[in-house]
Write a structure and sequence with these properties.
mainly alpha
């Protein structure tokens, strides 16, 4: 149970970190700014749709900045690629092309290429 709770806490922390970037659409940004001001969702939607172009553009610009922040946060949370993954990415395309010359079957060519590249990795 402790592992499950820790996993849930990690997932929640990750989601909270992503949400910290703010709303990523103009409408959700507008709703967040006007939440708790005595309007229901329908009224807020009507007010948003009645906004002028300049006001909407300001919201769109802010939402784009928030989206860029969100992408940065997601990129920072990615694990770096392993040495093997980098090696495969660099060497597989050439091995696959040479395997396709040996056989027309793509599945067989894939198997041959992976086998050749993994053998090459083990030798290096």
């Amino acid at each position: 149970k402790a592992k499950v709770a820790a996993k849930k806490a990690d997932v929640k922390a990750k989601k909270d970190k992503i949400k910290s970037s703010g709303p990523v659409t103009a409408q959700s940004l507008f709703f967040q700014q006007h939440k708790g001001k005595g309007m229901d969702l329908k009224q807020m939607r009507e007010k948003f749709n009645a906004l002028g172009a300049a006001e909407k553009n300001a919201l769109v610009d802010q939402a784009k900045k928030n989206l860029a922040k969100r992408h940065e946060i997601r990129q920072s949370m990615k694990k770096p690629a392993t040495k093997y993954a980098v090696f495969i990415k660099e060497n597989f395309p050439a091995a696959y092309q040479s395997a396709l010359k040996q056989t027309k079957d793509r599945k067989e060519a894939f198997k041959l290429a992976i086998k050749a590249v993994s053998t090459q990795y083990k030798q290096s």
